[in-house]
Amino acid sequence: MSEIIELARRARVASYALAEASRATKDAALHAMAAALRANTDTIVEANAVDVAAAREAGTPESTVDRLALNPSRVDGMAAGLEQLAGLADPIGEVVRGYTLPNGLELRQVRVPFGVVGIIYEARPNVTADAAGICLKSGNAVLLRGSSSAAASNEAIIAVLRDAAESTGLPADVVQGVPTDRAAVKELMQARGLVDVLIPRGGAGLIQTVVSESSVPVIETGVGNCHVYIDADADLDLGLEILLNSKTQRPSVCNAAESLLVHSAVADEFLARALPALAQAGVTVHGDPKVVAAGKGVVEATEEDFGTEYNSLDLSAAVVDSLEDAVQHIRRYSSGHTDAIITRSQAAARRFTTAVDSAAVVVNASTRFTDGGEFGFGAEIGISTQKLHARGPMGLPEMTSTKYVVTGEGQIRT
């Protein structure tokens, strides 16, 4: 028996115990995990330093190093996310719908765990704790395959989480790490029947590989080519503040803005203010000819720029002649993650939110709010840009399936 199959079998056994665990037991495990992360902060940060040093030695871009790096504050944030999950309602057993049929049968559709969830993700070791916590609260055993660049960090975090879960009476195998070699990943993607669902979280290449090569059902998370559109009727002060927050607050994450669209009616005034502010924040703007002409230091944009998720202090920008042109641009280049409009016009906001088909459409707020924690879901598994089952930030309900419970009094079908 291969190592991956053995891990999956152990996860399956652990999932049976977890599916029957009470909310009190699961919440106790989450609190124990949070406490253990804090108690082992030094060990986790030391392990992470090994990964960060190796990444820098390999010439990894600083935006990627930032996603990889942990410090005491980020470890505390991981612990706080687990505690927040403990405070949320348990989705398992929730009645989605229920009614009595004309023949007297009582029908209830209830939420149940998937069983065993495999998560394949890149760089960010905080995902290890987030994913383990959400899977545990939703009753799922989890197989965590992080990237080799975060191997030491993930190993340390998983060891802490396993010990904490076991201390509360749950099997340690509700959380397991998967080897990072390609052969192991391929086998995980083919473990249909032992693994119920796979979730890839990372760059476009990783996601496409898992979607194309997996025989296990996949929930596809998406890259974030997010837009901020400054409408003709925008409050320009508000628009500039939102643009800067969307782009610069944390540029390496998927809900950071990657593209700016400005209505031609306000382009001269807005760009005269926005381009210097972006430059001062260290942002390189890749603009169409109108944006290039509007200010110094703008790089001429290529077709590829408008479809790029930079994950860095780079921003594509274009001037559009109408809201409809903005919608058409977004339909062509957006990844369907998050797109925002800045406007005082209710009609424009309604048109934008109806016409733009993204997982999150934002009116007069930063794209950075598309996040499970910000939405009140607790830590998230990822942000789905597909349309089946789950879309947008995936919290606890999205990590469940349903089954029908049918209760009768001797009814037979004639």
Automatic annotation (TrEMBL):
It catalyses: L-glutamate 5-semialdehyde + phosphate + NADP(+) = L-glutamyl 5-phosphate + NADPH + H(+). One of its GO terms (molecular function) is NADP binding. It is found in: Cytoplasm. Residues 4-284 form the Aldehyde dehydrogenase domain. Its EC number is 1.2.1.41. SUPFAM superfamilies: ALDH-like. Its main location: cytoplasm. One of its GO terms (biological process) is L-proline biosynthetic process. Pathway: Amino-acid biosynthesis; L-proline biosynthesis; L-glutamate 5-semialdehyde from L-glutamate: step 2/2. InterPro entries: Ald_DH/histidinol_DH, Ald_DH_C, Ald_DH_N, Aldehyde_DH_dom, G-glutamylP_reductase_CS, Glu-5-SA_DH, GPR_dom. The keyword Coiled coil does not apply. The keyword Cytoplasm applies. Keywords: Amino-acid biosynthesis, Cytoplasm, NADP, Oxidoreductase, Proline biosynthesis. One of its GO terms (cellular component) is cytoplasm. Transmembrane segments: none annotated. Catalyzes the NADPH-dependent reduction of L-glutamate 5-phosphate into L-glutamate 5-semialdehyde and phosphate. The product spontaneously undergoes cyclization to form 1-pyrroline-5-carboxylate. PANTHER family: DELTA-1-PYRROLINE-5-CARBOXYLATE SYNTHASE, GLUTAMATE SEMIALDEHYDE DEHYDROGENASE. Belongs to the gamma-glutamyl phosphate reductase family. HAMAP family: ProA. This is Gamma-glutamyl phosphate reductase. It comes from Kribbella speibonae. The lineage of its organism: Bacteria, Bacillati, Actinomycetota, Actinomycetes, Propionibacteriales.
